[in-house]
């Protein structure tokens, strides 16, 4: 068994060589399998180092990148479907639900950026309960505090020590 010191945790003979390994990467329920990987893995801390003289690192990273892009596009398509179902423009959606720049939603739909989790949840809730859109609009107006006025009530309190 080929072993060597771990580059990460320093464990002596911690790393063991492997080859012909298949790994399945998973992002948001989507999977990619990468076969015939070779490198070193630490038995102590789990650190993995791919063999330099193979394309293991490249194929592993590519598969991961592909998955992340595919996941963003899948969510983008979902956001677009829900927005259209609700008969909202991208601009209206941003104004109503998330705030931020008016191009933000277009970036989410194109899969360039992952929407914030809270926005994703709101969209999915409205997908499931579209009738809540009316309430959402009412609440959203109430939440606009730019015209907020406040009155300070001064109350005189007397502390009594007995
Ligand atoms: Zn280690």
UniProtKB/TrEMBL annotation:
Pfam families: MqsA_antitoxin (PF15731). This is Type II toxin-antitoxin system MqsA family antitoxin. Gene3D superfamilies: 3.10.20.860, lambda repressor-like DNA-binding domains. One of its GO terms (molecular function) is DNA binding. It comes from the Bacteria. InterPro entries: Cro/C1-type_HTH, Lambda_DNA-bd_dom_sf, MqsA, MqsA/HigA-2, Znf_MqsA-type. It comes from Pseudomonas shahriarae.
